[in-house]
Each structure stands twice: as C-alpha cells, then as structure tokens.
C-alpha cells in the first residue's frame, strides 16, 4: 500500500509554443540551461517523497520516454512503485485517446488501484514552480477534505482568464467558475489536486458514463463534487509559479531565472537543498571561456566554448560562441553554433542550429521573441542579404 | 573470443601530494574542473569496451568509494562483470604474500571467475584520453605475453622519475626495462597481459617472496617472456607531485590541449546535479575552465573553478585552481594558488604563490 | 555506433495458447518454473553481448513492460543503448498497428538509425532455445552475406508445414518456399535473421511502398532479396529448439525440461555458465518441504510449501500443495493453492487459482492438457460432483 | 518531518563462529537457505520505510561488499540516501577517537548531511522479521532521547550472555541497563536515538577517551538521559556462536517458526539467477528448507540446503546445514553436520556430529 500515488498529466501538445514543440512534447522542451520543463514537476515529486508516479502521455513520445527512463535521476527507480509511463495504448489491445483530464485518470484506475492508495495527487508537467506536495497533503488531511486544489492569487484584472475558486474565509471552496466575466475571487486553480482516492474513484466512474461530460477535472469533476456537498479546500501557494505555454511566457520565465529577486527555481535551489532540481545528467567537459570571451548575467552549461560576448542569456550544453559574436537576452539550445560577428537579441535558437557568420537577428522589445532553427535561419539570412 | 578486463592498481603508486592527500588517496585527487584522477584510467577502459574493471585499494579510499559508487557513471553497474573494489583482506592465516601480490593472492577467485582472457593493468597517474583497442589488437596479433604501453616525452621532468623506461628492439620487442633517466620513452604504467600468465607470475612471485608484480615478475623476468612495446603518442600527463598537478591543470587552459584531452568519447565522471554556471553583472572571465554550480561575480583569469565555487565581486583569481564549493568573498586577490575543497577565503585576503610552487590551502580551511 | 542492434518481435498474441494468453501477451506467459517465455530470448541476447535491443509490441502490454523494466536482469540497463520498448504508438502522434514483421521494423527505422549499426539481428520472443547470436554474426561476416537466416532440420514428413529454405552445399540460399507441398529441403527457417543494415534498409523502404506486399520477412523481403541476387545464407542450428505456440507444445516443452537428456535449456544452463537463463528475480523465502511431502522428477521454485505428492511436474513460486494431494505431469503457475486430496494429471493451473479439496482433474494421455483457472475449476468441480 | 535513518554497527560485535568466520565477518554468515545474517537488520530497516542506511565495517568485509552491492536488492540504490558502507579511515592526524567512536568521528559529515533526525542503530546478530514503525511512534510520542528495544526470552541461553538486560519502570522508562544474567528482558542491540544527541554523545565519548558508544555514552549516562524501553515479543533469534547458529537454523524446520520468520513483508537478500530446485527420481525430502539451484537425488531429512547444492543418489543428509554449492557424491551419510560453502564430500563418506556440537567443515574443503 502506498499512502499517495502521483499522476502527472504530460499529454499537452503545447501548440502555442510553435516551433519549440514541433519535434518535442511540451513537457520535454528544454528549459533553464540544462533541464526540460517536466524536470521541475518531477523534482517536486522527488523532493516531496512521491515515489510512485504515473506519467500520462497522449502518445508515447520517444524523447520523453528516454529522458525519464527508469526515473533514476529523480530516485524513482524503485522496486515497488517508481515511475510508469502510461500511454493510452497501455491496455490489453490498446485504448482510446484520452478525451479529457478526468478521462485520462479514469482509464488508469487499475494502475492506481494496484497500490491501494489513500490519496491521489494530480499534477501536470508544464509549469515552472517548486512546491512540496506533502504540505498540500498535510492540509488535505488536517481539513479532512475530499479534494484540495492548489491556488495562486492572480491580479484581479486577469482573473477572468483563469479557472477561479470562490472560497469561504477558511478556504473551503463553494464554487468553481471557469473564466468568469465578473470574478468574485482572484484565487486561480493551478491544476494541482489532491483527492481522497475512494471519493474520486466514485466520481470518475460516474462521470465516465455521462455522455454530456467533457471529462475534465475543472469543468466536470469539481462541479459534480461541489454539487454533492463534498469537502473541497483551496491550498494557497504564494511562491514563484509560471505557466510556460507561449513563446513569450517561455522567454519571460527564462529571463526570470536571471533575476535573483524573482524567486525563480534556480536561485531558490541554490539556497535550499530540499528544493534542488534534478535532470538526466549528460557527461560533457566543463565549459571553456576563451581569451576573448565576456559573459555577464547569464547561465552557461557544460561543454560550451565562449569566445564572444554573452549577456542576459541562457546557454544549454555544447554551445560554441565564436569571436565578435554578441548574444543578448537570448536562449541557445544544446549544440548551437554561433558564427563570428553574429548579433542576436531576444532570440531562441533551437537544438543543433548553426548560425552562420555575420547573421544579425533582433526581436524588438515588445514583439514576441523569435525562434530560429536551421530552416528559418536561412530565410533571415537571405532577407538580411537582400537588405544590404 | 578474446576479451580484456581492466585492473586499476592503486597500491604502491608513488606520490608526493602533501595537503591534497591528507584525506584521500591520489586516485581521488580532483582534476580539470570536474574530474578525479581515476576517471581517466576508468573511462579509457570502458571507452575501449571493457565491461569488467577491478580496483585494488589500500588506504584512504572512503572518498574513492563514494566517487565510484556502483560504477553507474561509467556504465559499470552490471550484474555480470562491472566494477569491483577490492580492498586487501588480511585474515588468511596461510597468506605469505607481500606488497601488491597480496591483492592478487586474496582475489584469485575473482580473476578466475571473469570471462576475459587478458588483463589491462593501469595506475591512476597517467592521464590521457585514449582507446586501448589498438594496443590490444597489436597484443593479439603478436601473440605477446605482455604488451607495455610507453609514451615518448618531449622534456624529461621530475614526475617521470618514478617510471621505468622502455627500450624497444625489432618487431616491437622490448629489450630493456630500465631506470635510464635519459631515455625519453617513459612507461605509462599501463600494460596488457594474458590472464593465465598473470596468475602464474603471481604464484612465482609469492613463492619467491617478491613484493612487486611488475618489477619482480615482469621486468626481472623480461628474457623469459615475450614482452612487446606499444607507443602512445597522444596528449598526456603524468601527475604525481603538487608541481606536476599544478602545471598540468594550467596546461589545459590552452585551448588546443583542452580539446585534445576532452575529445569524444568523453572522459566520464560521477554525475552531480549542479545548475549551469551563473555569471553575474561584474563577472569578467577569460582563459578559464569553469564547472557547473559556480556563481561568478569577479575576475577570473587563467584559472580552473571546480563545481559550486562562488567568486564575489571585486575579487580577482589568477593562475589558480579552486576546488569544489570554495567561497571567495569580496576584494580577494589570489594568484598561483591551489585551494582544496570547501575553503572559505574571507573579504580582503591576498594570497600569492609562485608559478613554480603554488600556495596550497588544505580542505575546509577558513583563511 | 553499435556493431549490431537487436530487434525482438514480441507482438504475437498467441491465440493458440487459449486461456494462457487471455490476460498475458504470449512472450509474458510463465514457463519453466520461474521464467517467462521471452526470458529465453532475452537471455540469449545477454549471453551474446547484444546490449542494444528494441522490443516491438503490437500494443504496450503493462505486464511485459513491468517484467522487462529497464532490462537490468539481462544487463541491458545501459547508458547508451540498452533495451527500449517500441509500441506502434511511439511516434509523434501515435502510429498504425504494425501490418507485418517487416512493417514493424520499417516503422522503427529511425530507432535503428540512431545507433548507426552495421548489422541488425531480428528475433522473436516465443521460442525456447539457447543460441549465441555472435556465432551467427561471425558466419554472416565470414560469408559476406546480405542476410543470414537461422535454420533447423525438421523431419521430412513435417517439412511442408514450415517455411523451407533451399540451399546449395555451402548453405547459400537460392529459394524460399512457404509451406511447400513437395519440399526439396528440410531446412526450416527459425525466424532469426541477421541483415546487413544498409541492404535491409533499402529493401524495407521499397517494400513499404508496395501496396501488394504483406510486409512480411518470409513472404516479401527474403524473396525480393533473392530476386535481386543478394547473398543469403542459412545458419544451421543443431541444438534444442521448441516453438511453444500451442497448449500441447507448451506442455511438451515443459516436460522436456524434466528430461535431462532432451538438451533443454535448464540442464544446459547448469553445465555452462555462458548459457544461463536470467529473469526478473522475485524475493521469496526458500521452499519448505513438510513431513508428508514427496517430490520426484520435478522443478519447484521458491516460496512453495509442499505437503503432498508431486511428480514429473513444474511448480512456480508460492505454490501450496496440501496433504494427500497428488500432482502428476502438471504445471502449477505462481500462487496456486492445491487442496487436500486433489488429484491432477496433465493439467496446467493458472496463476493464483485455488483448487478446492478433493478436486480431481485428468487429461488422458493423448488429449491436449487441460488448463484450469478459477472460473473453469468450478465447472470441473461441479461436473465431478454430478458424476459422484 | 520526523525520519529515521538506519545504522548497522558491526564493530565490536561479540562472536564465536570459528570456521564460519575465517574468511568473512559475522554479518555475512549464511542463514536459512538463502540469507546472510545482515539481511534481517537491513530488511527490517527498509521494510520500516527507511531510505538511508549506513554500515560500519572493520574487518573481513569483502564478502559483505559483494553481498550488499549497490543496495539494489533492498531498494537502497538511491541517488539521495541509500546504502553507505563506511570502513574506518585512520589517516586523520588529529583523530583521538577509539573503538566504534572512530567510525562516528570519521563520518561526522555523513551524519550531518542526511535528512533523518533520528537514528536506529542495530547489529547483525538479532534476527527477527519486524517493523520498527511502532517503536518509532512510541519514541516520538514519549519524546525520548533514546528508545531501547528488548525482548523477553523464554529460556536464558549462552548466546544471551553478551547482551545487556533492561529494567523497565513506569511509562516505559528504563531504570537499569545491567548484566544481570537472571533478567530475561534481553536488549536486542537495537535502539533509536535523536541524531543531534547521538552526535553530542559521540563528542563526549571522544573527549573522555571512551571506546564504546552504547556502554559508555548511553548505559553509563542513563540517569542524564530520558531512555525508554520498547518490548518486542515476536519470533526472534540471537546468533553469535556455532551452537546458536545451528540451533536456530534447526528451529526453522518447524513450520510455525518458518512461517513466523518469513511472513510478509519478506526479508530481502541478494538476487541470484539459480533455476528452481530439481528433484530427481530418487529424491526423498522431508521437513527441509531447500533453496533454488539445488539438485536432489538422495534423502534429505530435517535439513537446510543452500543455493546450488547437489545431493547424489543413495546419500542421506539428516539434521544438517549444507551451504552454497556443496557437492555430495553417492552413498554419503551426513548427520548433525554443517558444511560451509563449496565443500565436496566424496563417495561413501560418513560424517556424524552431535546435536549439541555439530561437526563443522570449513569452506572449499574436499572430504
């Protein structure tokens, strides 16, 4: 028996991340100089002693499977429990695509049942934050709740873009409103739930038979529970939390890393060993900064060779920046080569792209940062040629 | 099928490391920003396809045990073969063996059990990124009893003193293993030997009360054996003194040397979960090797920072080696200095050694 | 680069194994007291130093995934390579069911390409045999072949039931005949192939575009290669080999284990360390033989308690045989309980079945052995009640 | 959050095993067909949810290293926490510590680093299948400094001599830790202690040149500390002599005892890849424990066969313990015998010991 089993919904396609999710599932997108987005959630599990975890994918993405592997990086290579990848095809003869978040859990009831848990933690793999799920569980037990939903205060003017929870003063939830026109509260659901499994199990089974349901936690399960007077509480989270659903927010979250006052994970991890971020470690030599290199306000990973100017940027492993290149407010994914005299500002360069000598690419201050890969770099380059 | 197993023999390694080996053996000395000396011997073995490696350890090996763990970082966490740490075992009342022979004697079963029929023996102080497959092919083609690997050195330096020199005749035959200090063909301490023969030599050495397998069993029996030489002439270093340690670290700050030593296949080391290096607003770093987990806000020139070092603003580090998790406060000036792990240098300190004799601070000091 | 990558076809449903494959993929069916069928092939890989292996399943069977895990039992938990489960859903947005053996490999060309191998070994997971694939590879290299197919001599009278290879005296193949009415040879294909990857890759791509192809190695790829004068050789295997495709052959292969002269794997493994069989080890206490127990000519696994008579049988872990029970020529899967005075002969009892006191079930000598599970045991029991 | 870590202290364990410990320490002695003594302490810890276990080893621990490996069999192959084997380290020039204190002294960092705030200390010679969660709950509820676990024994036997006796007062307070041989409340050697306090006691003992943490730092300081008692009254054994080793193995042949010791959660041990037991035509086995890999064609009565034992036809084994890979030829008769690993008994041999004093054959003998 396990007290609490985690279910991580990692099926998001991340369409709004454009090119970044062309070849990659959203949770597998590189983030923070050496991590992938899902590492932050997996590390939360590791730091919260959640050692039995199902990772639900809409298909079985090979790079996510290989990244997670047997879960060793997060100490989840356990004899009993550990991490299990659950694609819709993991049935006797395959299964249906998951039709909603609740359906994804419903289709894996047997997986959860085998551990006979008292509680189930439901999380998703596409946010950057550090949370100890044991604190949520402790509140869940203390309030004797059927469900506990983590919430974050959002600015009142943005509240109508979120799923908003209306609560009493003791944080007991009496209403859930999806994107309310006139919000009564600014407590937004973070999509992080702890349920008492026995209760959730009943609601999932009932919901599955409802042809009108969209099988979604926010839209269907939570309202159904509220309708039957179950005890639902909000857990108020006040630390750093960022959705990286768009190019702009992905870039902003990266820039937050460089701001030591933002409370973003890498600074916190440095001060607090219980909040470290783990990933599947590669084995590259340390970085080499040449005689002409100049690096300020940046994160640089192993295997890099720097001979140019790098400021306010994040460089993944194995990046080469040649002389007289100037990289500003940019993100260079693994294996990128930056030629001489290249100038980049507010640009994201995808894995293994070679940026030829002399290319200059800027995104203006209020525009969305540009994403470069080997294909579109040529267009930028020829445009520039045309301009000269 | 012919297979090699690896044996890293740390017994009887000559070394003068003073402060750096108070609490660790020489194989565990940190090197080049994120490695330990033993990583080179071990990675060369696994990069050559060996699936079984034994390590003879006698003293101060706790930090080595911690570093090697299950062997996972070198892909040696195997059910069959894999990594074996063999400490000595002094409890056999019938044991008459001495020196490194006692390791072979006490671990005879281990050698008999494995699948390999050749053994590549190495120490930890010859540093290179090499593949022993070619030497093994020559060993098999010539059907040699023993193939010793030597390297010609440009300049004979004090660290070479401890090593035998190889005199090579026709067909790569070894005609002399000497202490001739003028001979630049320095034995690397690495040799390949037929396993059955190795065990025979062990028996001979024990029977005749010998103490050193290579010197007594191979060098002194040279004319009884078919010993061949294999020349390695790639980038390398011999590290067995503070001076050679310092010089060889500094040499790596030349890009060409760095790239030679850290070409693919990479040298592997224990993984850590340090974040990427954080450069802050006042950072000014040149000609340096910086490992993950560092936070740099000062000036770093011609230096090596190991994992997790912090350099505060208005501090300068020149021609120095700063090991894991050292903390350098503001307004510090360090030149020609080696700081062992966890040293904390207080605000305003100035420490200057000479380029011949760097100033060394032992681990965990506050200065 | 890997010299040789293995691809294990583990998609067989094993319909002819009846009840045994109701809940289990065929390769995951228990065999030999502590193993599963696929363990024999996986152990061949381990003993042949094939450390990069793709396991192809038609869906993603959870018990097979859990059994193989990260491949540690077979030393396949390697940093580079190791074992990878490949279900048809392992594409960007899922994929099609594999339409034939060749199609299964075709759909995983990218998986193979990433290791840039010179050779590919193709095997299946449903035969009991011990082969060192390096010997096949050595012959493949020595003959400079494009494909090498392992063959076994079958009795001439059975040859028309097999895929038969007609060869020259040097074992060069000039013709493949699927179930020939008048066989010219008794060399039957074992479904074990080594291909030079460059050549196979071309043929797979060509075959994929052929709408008339059934995308099968035997029916399509091999004839196409012969048609283009490629070099194909047979590798003659002369040791024990058994297909366990039916209840009868499953039972026979089990009885072979008990016959020390049959050359079947367990006896061989005992004498030859290089032919050991590995499995995912469970951790049960040793077996306890009570004062009234009597065991002869049998294999008994850990965790068993024996108080009755057991002869010519194979008992998996955690089986209890109570007093005055008599088990003969039978196979008891893990967790079976045999009540007092039970008599079984030529019976296979499935996992966790409780056989109540006094039940007697026989299969007559020439009939197919009976398979019992908790459901049909009741029928047998009530039949018997009716008889008395 | 309150957490326990485990510490198996093998230093200073009292034992008289003669032949059985020529080449191994007592923690590595084979027991009950497929286990080693240490498996019980280790499994009880991991079955109680501990994720971090340290083992203090001094002598003859090579076979123990081999048995424990990366800790994988106990689910202790972890990046954080997991299994640590801590050999002594004699190289600190400032080290004044003695006895088992030197282990604590030399591994102070290790203790400071872990997440646990309580330590459960155990030896390897108290054998039981138990869960320490309940004792830990009592320890936390009473906010005790130390909770000692004792067990009442039915009959006081020689193997109990080496253990202290516990006198329990009100509210589970320990009012005496004595050597009173008439007191049946035998201390199991297992106790839970607050980690900070443990490190304080270590400092005290070192400062005052003490040699034994428990005797000097806890027993002799009893009235300075809040020490409570927890009674364990399940199935158990104390094994520290050949006689107790033999008797406790034989006791397990009674089904009830066997089931008591091997209830779920199971005691874990190193996995092996032995096939199931093969019984041949002449096998006649009763009242026995047989491990995988055995091949039996003779008569085995009231005996324990470890992994890979072969018993040929027309041989009889009675009231005996036959360890790994022994080979018994035809027409052999063994009664009240212990054969250590790899013993080969030739055709026609008869060996008969007494039930009080079994006949012991050391490993690898041919008789």
Could you explain how this protein is built, in words?
The complex is a heterotetramer, with two copies of chain A (388 residues) and two copies of chain B (367 residues). Helices cover 24% and strands 27% of the residues of chain A. Chain A has 388 residues and is α/β, with parallel strands linked by helices. Chain A has a seven-stranded mixed sheet with strand order 5-4-1-6-11-8-12. Chain A has a five-stranded parallel sheet with strand order 14-17-20-23-26, with no helix packed on it. In chain A, helix 2 (62-68) links the parallel strand 4 and strand 5. In chain A, helix 6 (197-208) crosses helix 7 (217-227). The longest helix of chain A is centred in the C-terminal third of the chain and has 14 residues, at 374-387. Chain A starts with a strand and ends with a helix. The mean pLDDT of chain A is 90. Chain B has helices spanning 38-47, 62-68, 101-106, 108-113, 133-141, 195-207, 213-219, 242-251, 255-261, and strands at 4-9, 30-31, 35-36, 52-56, 82-86, 118-122, 126-128, 146-152, 165-168, 174-178, 185-194, 227-231, 236-238, 277-279, 284-286, 288-290, 295-296, 299-301, 304-305, 310-311, 316-318, 321-322, 327-328, 333-335, 337-339, 344-345, 350-352, 359-361. Chain B has nine helices and 28 strands. In chain B, the strands form seven sheets. A seven-stranded mixed sheet of chain B has the order 5-4-1-6-11-8-12. The termini of chain B are far apart. Chain B has 367 residues and is of the alpha/beta class. In chain B, helix 6 crosses helix 7 (213-219). Chain B has two domains: 4-262, Spore Coat Polysaccharide Biosynthesis Protein SpsA, Chain A (Alpha-Beta Complex); 278-361, UDP N-Acetylglucosamine Acyltransferase, domain 1 (3 Solenoid), CATH 2.160.10. Chain A binds chain B through residues 32-34, 266, 269-270, 276-279, 281, 283-302, 305, 310, 314-315, and chain B through 32-34, 73, 255, 258, 262, 266-269, 271-273, 275-292, 295. Strand 14 of chain A pairs antiparallel with strand 16 of chain B, so a sheet runs across the interface. Chains A, C: This is Glucose-1-phosphate adenylyltransferase. Chains A, C: Pfam families: Hexapep_GlmU (PF24894), NTP_transferase (PF00483). Chains A, C: One of its GO terms (molecular function) is ATP binding. Chains A, C: Homotetramer. Chains A, C: Pathway: Glycan biosynthesis; glycogen biosynthesis. Chains B, D: This is Glucose-1-phosphate adenylyltransferase subunit GlgD.
């Amino acid at each position: 028996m396990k007290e609490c089993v985690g279910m991580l919904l990692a099926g998001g396609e991340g369409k709004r991340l454009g090119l970044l999710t062309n070849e990659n599932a959203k949770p597998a997108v590189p983030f923070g100089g050496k991590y992938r987005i899902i590492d932050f959630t997996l590390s939360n599990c590791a730091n919260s002693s959640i050692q039995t975890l199902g990772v639900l994918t809409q298909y079985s993405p090979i790079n996510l499977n290989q990244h997670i592997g047997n879960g060793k990086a997060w100490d989840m290579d356990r004899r009993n429990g550990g991490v299990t990848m659950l694609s819709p095809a993991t049935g006797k003869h395959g299964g249906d695509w998951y039709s909603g978040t609740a359906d994804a859990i419903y289709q894996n009831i047997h997986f959860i049942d085998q551990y006979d848990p008292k509680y189930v933690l439901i999380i998703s793999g596409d946010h950057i934050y550090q949370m100890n799920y044991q604190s949520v569980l402790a509140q869940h037990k203390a309030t004797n709740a059927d469900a506990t939903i983590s919430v974050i205060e959002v600015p009142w003017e943005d509240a109508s873009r979120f799923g908003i929870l209306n609560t009493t003063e003791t944080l007991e939830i009496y209403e859930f409103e999806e994107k309310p026109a006139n919000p009564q509260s600014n407590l937004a659901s973070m999509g992080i739930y702890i349920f008492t499994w026995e209760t959730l199990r009943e609601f999932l089974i009932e919901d599955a038979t409802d042809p009108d349901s969209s099988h979604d936690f926010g839209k269907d399960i939570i309202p159904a529970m509220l309708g039957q007077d179950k005890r639902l509480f909000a857990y108020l989270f006040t630390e750093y939390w960022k959705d990286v659903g768009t190019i702009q927010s992905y870039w902003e979250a990266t820039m937050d890393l460089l701001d030591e006052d933002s409370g973003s994970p890498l600074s916190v991890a440095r001060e607090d060993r219980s909040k470290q971020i783990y990933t599947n470690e590669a084995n590259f030599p340390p970085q080499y900064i040449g005689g002409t290199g100049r690096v300020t306000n940046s994160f640089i990973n192993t295997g890099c060779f720097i001979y140019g100017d790098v400021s306010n940027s994040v460089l993944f492993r194995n990046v080469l920046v040649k002389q007289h290149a100037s990289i500003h407010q940019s993100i260079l994914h693994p294996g990128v080569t930056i030629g001489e005299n290249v100038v980049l500002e507010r640009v994201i360069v995808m894995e293994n792209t070679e940026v030829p000598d002399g290319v200059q690419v800027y995104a203006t201050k209020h525009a969305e940062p540009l994403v470069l890969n080997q294909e579109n770099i040529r267009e930028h380059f020829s445009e520039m040629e045309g301009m000269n | 099928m012919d297979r090699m197993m690896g044996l890293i023999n740390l017994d009887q390694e000559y070394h003068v490391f003073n402060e750096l080996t108070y609490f660790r053996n020489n194989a565990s000395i940190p090197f080049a920003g994120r490695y330990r000396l033993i990583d080179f011997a071990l990675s060369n073995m696994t990069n050559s396809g060996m699936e079984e490696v034994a390590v003879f350890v006698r003293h101060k090996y706790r930090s080595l045990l911690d570093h090697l763990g299950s062997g996972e970082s070198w892909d040696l966490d195997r059910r069959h073969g894999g990594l074996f740490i063999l400490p000595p075992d002094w409890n056999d009342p019938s044991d008459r063996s001495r020196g490194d022979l006692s390791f072979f004697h006490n671990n005879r079963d281990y050698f008999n059990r494995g699948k390999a029929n050749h053994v590549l023996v190495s120490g930890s102080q010859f540093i290179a990124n090499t593949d022993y497959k070619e030497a093994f092919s020559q060993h098999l083609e010539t059907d040699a009893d023993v193939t010793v690997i030597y390297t010609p050195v440009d300049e004979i330096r004090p660290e070479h003193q401890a090593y035998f020199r190889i005199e090579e005749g026709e067909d790569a035959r070894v005609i002399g293993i000497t202490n001739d200090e003028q001979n630049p063909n320095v034995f690397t301490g690495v040799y390949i030997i037929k396993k059955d023969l190795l065990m025979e030599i062990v028996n001979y050495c024990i029977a005749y009360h010998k103490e050193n397998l290579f010197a007594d069993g191979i060098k002194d029996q040279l004319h009884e054996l078919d010993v061949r030489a294999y020349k390695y002439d790639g980038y390398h270093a011999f590290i067995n003194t503070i001076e050679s340690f310092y010089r060889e670290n500094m040499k790596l700050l030349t890009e060409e040397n760095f790239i030679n030593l850290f070409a693919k296949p990479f040298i592997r080391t224990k993984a850590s979960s340090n974040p990427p290096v954080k450069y802050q607003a006042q950072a000014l770093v040149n000609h340096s090797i910086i490992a993950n987990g560092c936070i740099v806000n000062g000036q770093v020139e011609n230096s090596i920072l190991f994992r997790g070092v912090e350099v505060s603003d208005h501090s300068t580090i020149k021609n120095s080696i700063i090991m894991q998790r050292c903390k350098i406060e503001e307004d510090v000036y360090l030149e020609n200095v080696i700081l062992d792990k966890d040293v904390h240098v207080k605000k305003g300190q100035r420490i200057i050694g000479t380029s011949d004799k760097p100033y060394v601070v032992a681990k965990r000091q506050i200065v």
